[in-house]
Amino acid sequence: MRHSDSFLKLLHAGFAVLLSVFLVACGGGGGGGGSASTSANASTPAQSVSISAPATSGLPANVAAVTVDSGVTGVPNMPFVSVTVCVPGTAQCQTIDHVLVDTGSWGLRLFASQLPAAASMPQEQDAQGNALAECMQFFDGYTWGSVRLADVEIGGEKAASLPIQVIDPNYSATPADCLHLGSARNTPTALAANGVLGIGVFKHDCGAKCALQAVPTTYYGCAGTTCTSLAVAENLQVANPIPYFATDNNGSILELPAVATNGAVSLTGQLVFGIGTQSNNGLGSAQVIGVSPSNGTFTTVQNSVTYSQSIMDSGSTGLFFETTALPACASPNNAYYCPTSTTQMSAMIEGVNGVNSAVSFDVGNATSLTQTFGNEAVMPLLAGPAFVTSAIFDWGLPFFYGRNVYAAVEQQSTPGGTGPYIAY
Predict the structure, then answer these.
(1) Distance from CA of residue 389 to its chain's centroid?
(2) Which of 222, 24, 249, 34 is nearest to 137 (CA)?
(3) Is pLDDT at 404 greater than 70 in this prediction?
(4) Radius of gyration, alpha carbons of the chain
């Protein structure tokens, strides 16, 4: 997930936890600050509309409603879902809305301030009895808090006693190396969401790397105000809830309707659990794009440039990639591109399984969009320079509009083969 401070309070987001590529990054990039104050190539304002997918009342058990709306702080292109968490084995529960749906990360992260039962949720401990905490690194910042156990319910699906991160800046003492990662995203306002639901292609947020050794700025054992970096077994790590559902546990489909070029005030879609497990989640004719089993990346080729560390990331507010074909906006919107007119582009997505898929997309002038459509939460023309590395092509939420995008979980069997893969 990627945010940027420069566009309509767009916070740097981008929860792509690509461990071997970006250390232990649940992160995003971008730059700049403030909001646009000038107009470039502004067009006549269009009538604002809201877009809805099929009705979300009476949904099947494996479906949860998704909204893209103004959310917590008015950041566009952020898909939200409601999540219910309970003290394990009890009816002591809390439902939290506006939790970001993020295919670029793995694990549920919620704020202690929103969980009246947080203190009652069992503290996760390792085999030595260390109370576990986590510093979750973004491209430009971090969240800090304890690892707790919770029953997690989304739609009609449930994962029992799942390790989650409870974000709490007052838990123990934030380690110094975590504080050096950039901006703290330890409040809903700073994160632009009430939490993050990471439902990408992996089961755990660090995996074997953190199980084999202590990875700096990741997991800690805390005693009092002293927290020490340590290795953590995979089954104790913050986990993607999907593979821990009793059924429909091999992946998900994020289904969002198409939008007009200028966007919309809001839209409603669906998050469907399982791939090929029910009549409503078949793979159909979707193209299966294999991703790296170690970091979830694939390749994109655009304008003869190869981006070997491409990601499919619903938590990113735009498409982010380095190119000389588009001019960056003037400050404070320099985290985005500002072509003189809307520019149509194309790219080839290449999976590690040898499947290639041609994609076309449009890029608009971010400053003009700010000026003309600043009240709209659905903005399909946003794109900007990559932040972390020129090798990345971040296919953010604009790619998802008008598509059903699948994320198959590692080691899980599906009609399209064993995960990890994406499909659309």
Answers:
(1) 18
(2) 24
(3) yes
(4) 20
Please give the C-alpha separations between residue 113 and each of 87, 137, 154, 332, in angstroms, as whole numbers: 15, 20, 20, 32
- Greatest Cα pair distance, the chain, in angstroms, is 64
Q: Count other C-beta atoms under 10 Å from residue 87's C-beta.
A: 20
**CA–CA dist 36, 43 (Å, integer):** 16
| DSSP 3-state of 198 | strand
Please classify residue 296 by burial: count the beta carbons closer than 10 Å to its beta carbon, then call 0-12 exposed, 13-18 middle and 19+ buried: buried
Structurally, what CATH architecture does the domain formed by 284-423 represent? Answer: Beta Barrel (2.40)
Q: Which helix (H) or strand (E) holds 273?
A: strand 266-273
> What class does CATH assign to 16-33+56-244?
mainly beta
Q: What is the pLDDT of residues 187-211, one digit of tens each?
A: 999 999 999 999 999 999 999 999 9
Q: Which DSSP letter does residue 137 get?
A: E
Rounded Cα gap, residues 213 and 404, in angstroms: 38
pLDDT tens by residue, 2-36: 443 332 223 333 333 222 222 222 333 322 222 23
**Residue 286 DSSP code:** P
Instruction: Enumerate residues 6+ apart whose C-beta is below 8 A from 103.
Output: 199, 200, 252, 254, 312, 313, 314, 315, 405, 407, 422
User: What tokens were used for 298?
Assistant: 């694939």
> Token pair 């794009």 is at which residue?
289
| Secondary structure E strands in 112-263 | 131-137, 141-154, 157-167, 183-184, 195-199, 219-223, 226-229, 251-255
Rounded to two decimals, the pTM is: 0.88
pLDDT above 90 covers a percentage of the chain that reads: 76
Which DSSP helix (H) or strand (E) runs through 320?
strand 319-321
SS3 content of the chain, % helix, strand, coil (to 5): 10, 40, 50
What pLDDT score was predicted for residue 296?
Answer: 96
For residue 297, what are the β-bridge partners?
Answer: none
Give ranges for CATH 2.40.70 in the chain. Answer: 16-33+56-244, 284-423
